Amino acid sequence: MRTLTLRGGARAEVVAAEWHDAFGVVTRGRVQLELRDGEPGPVFGRDAGFWLRGTGVRALCNPDRRTAEVRVFTPGAVTRQATHSVRQAPYEGDDMNSMKDTGIVAGPASGPPRYTHRFRGLAGTGLIATLAAMVITTLAAALARAAGVDFEIPEGGETIPLSGFAVVTGFFSIVGVVIAVALLRWSARPADRFVWTAVALTVISLVPPLISGANAATVTALLGLHLVAAAVVIPVLTRSLRTRTD
């Protein structure tokens, strides 16, 4: 057994002669597999395990800034444990040419892969936040209407129904959840990237009410409802992303 330490952004080449039949378990941070064709492979978090035999993996990479560690178990080898510095050199040759691309078997020591649970957990949290935002914005719109806001849009002379607030809030909240899941999969800093993206999209969403030509009360109410929905969904998804990348 050996412990491989990967500093932030580091890359460790996989040598077939030393890593044949090896099984790795991430004990700290996150580790991404680099496949034989140079394409990025899956990212594994703490306690996730993966086999190297038959996967076509040519390197282990740390996609984050924080240090990551991997325990590498090699059946049949003399038990030993060492900490290796990662060689920061360009890849030369393919150390895994003799291996077949049969896919990667990954997951915790028992049970389904942890990264799948992370995505499902984030999606579930996002769905709950979406439903909460829909209810809160609809109630807020109802209170505003009771206070005398007509929500009438001059173009077409139509009045926005209460169900319209729920539908629009739900649609854009789901878009936010999809963005969060994508960033969790492909970004090294998903929480930070999500905050900047969500805030930018929220600012953009304020433009239509401002140019709608509606009366001041309607415009103010619409702006407030946009901010209420953002205040419900963005913190929940951000906190969930931080929890799943620690």
Give structural notes.
The chain is of the alpha+beta class. It folds into 2 domains: 2-111, Sandwich (Jelly Rolls); 115-245, no CATH class. It has 6 helices and 12 strands. It has helices spanning 16-19, 114-146, 162-186, 190-205, 207-210, 216-245; strands spanning 2-6, 11-13, 23-28, 31-35, 40-44, 49-51, 57-61, 68-73, 83-84, 106-107, 152-153, 158-159. The chain has a 6-stranded mixed beta sheet with strand order 9-1-8-3-6-10, with no helix packed on it. It is elongated and about 75 Å long. It starts with a strand and ends with a helix.
Features:
alpha+beta; Jelly Rolls; 4-stranded antiparallel sheet
Structure, briefly:
This protein is 46% helix and 19% strand.
Give the count of helical stretches.
6
Radius of gyration: 24 Å
**Major sheet strand order:** 9-1-8-3-6-10
Give the DSSP E fraction (strand runs of 2 or more residues). Answer: 15-25%
SS-derived structural category: alpha+beta
Low-confidence stretches: 77-114
Helix content: 40-55%
Distance between the termini: 25 Å
What's the β-strand tally? 12
Let me know the average pLDDT: 79
The oligomerization state is single chain
Please indicate the count of domains.
2
Order of helices and strands: EEHEEEEEEEEHEEHHHH
Largest β sheet strand count, sense and barrel closure: 6 strands, mixed
Q: State the shape.
A: elongated
Transmembrane segments: 122-144, 164-186, 193-211, 217-237
Pfam families: DUF6069 (PF19545)
Keywords: Membrane, Transmembrane, Transmembrane helix
Q: What's the helix and strand layout?
A:
Blueprint: E1 2-6, E2 11-13, H1 16-19, E3 23-28, E4 31-35, E5 40-44, E6 49-51, E7 57-61, E8 68-73, E9 83-84, E10 106-107, H2 114-146, E11 152-153, E12 158-159, H3 162-186, H4 190-205, H5 207-210, H6 216-245
Parallel strand pairs: 1-9
Antiparallel strand pairs: 1-8, 2-7, 3-6, 3-8, 4-5, 4-7, 6-10, 11-12
